[in-house]
Amino acid sequence: MKRQSGLLTRKSLAILLTVAVAIAVAAAVFIGSRRVSEPVVKPPEDIEDYLFWQAKELTDFKLIGADNKTLGLNDLKGKWSFVFFGYIHCPDVCPLTMGVLGQAFKLIEKNPAAHQEIQGIFVSVDPKRDTPELLKEYASYFSNKFIGVTGNTAQVDAFSRQMSALYTIHPEESQESGDNYLVTHNSTVFLVDPQGRLYGRFPPPQLPQEIAEVFIKIHTFYNERVKK
Amino acid sequence: MIKFFSTILVALMLGLAALSASAGSDIQIRDPWVQAAPPSVKVLAAYLEIKNDGKKQRVLTDVSSPAFAQVGIHRTVMHGNMAHMEHLKELAVPPNASVVLQPGGLHLMLTDAKKPLNTGDSVPMTLTFKDGEKVAVQATVRSGQKEDMGDHQHMDHSGHMNHNH
Fold this sequence. Notes:
- The complex is a heterodimer.
- Chain A is about 45% helix and about 20% strand.
- By secondary structure, chain A is of the alpha+beta class.
- In chain A, the strands form 3 sheets. Chain A has a 6-stranded mixed beta sheet. Chain A has a two-stranded antiparallel ribbon with strand order 2-3. A two-stranded antiparallel ribbon of chain A has the order 7-8.
- In chain A, a hairpin with a 5-residue loop joins strand 2 and strand 3 (about 70).
- In chain B, strands 1, 2, 3, 4, 5, 6, 7, 8, 9 and 10 form a 10-stranded mixed beta sheet that branches.
- At the A-B interface, helix 4, helix 6 and strand 8 of A face strand 4, strand 5 and strand 8 of B.
């Protein structure tokens, strides 16, 4: 009996040691990783809710605009990009959100430095109906800061999934067959920083003043505290 | 010449709209407008307020417009941040109450515009209620943004333009 319990103790000691070593290693790795990565600077409270806790690096993508121009990750760098996923046959939410963004862009003019760095990107999740030429007309209608892009399903998904911007096309719900179908889409406006990282988001319902004021604060915070 | 006739036509339609509104109906349509979009966009949304001054519930069952192949009653529903459109067969307006169709919620979905529409254009629409009453309105195409509203405010009440016949 005694020998058995001794064996048990030795066994549990071994387990304890292993666990302790594992914790120590994990802690060391964690502390180490915190040292090498950018220190998390706490943003002011009034913009905190709009920012991701940690900016997310995007991987390269390829979307198609008018005149066969492509849009990739490099085209986001050096600018603040307001990204919105929608489709032209969306009569309610899309013109509403695009109109709000167009007005927000105008309001941001009061801060010329911030205004100079913004661009709007309308990504159509409905490439079957929305050609790059139509998208150019549609996007620029709301602001000359806007471009419109799309791509095949794989190209659109490669970009939208990085922002968890889900969408569903419902041909079964159409009132008529053919081209009149509805699309469910995420109506969040995503904000990508000049390093090409997913930095913040404006969930619906959005207001022009809200977006403009919050963005100018984000821009100031970023330039003073985050930019390397 | 064509412009002259279309002006007369618009005036006649406004007159009709005024008549239908002043013929003792309990239904008033307020501020009908269409969200402006680039000319190539064939699907638009219209918004308005339906005010029921009567003692009975009224039910909107059909909307038509000669400017579009089809008009449907739709509602945008948000599931979290996901926007989804629902097609409604009818829309009830309780007695002594208003139902407001506005961006981000209830709207009339106008499908397949027969010609491009520009800001300031008028879109004739007929609203049919379950009891058979038809109300004609002229919806003005405008941008939904507030800065434009001041310019158009005096034009947005075609549903009760009683002075205009």
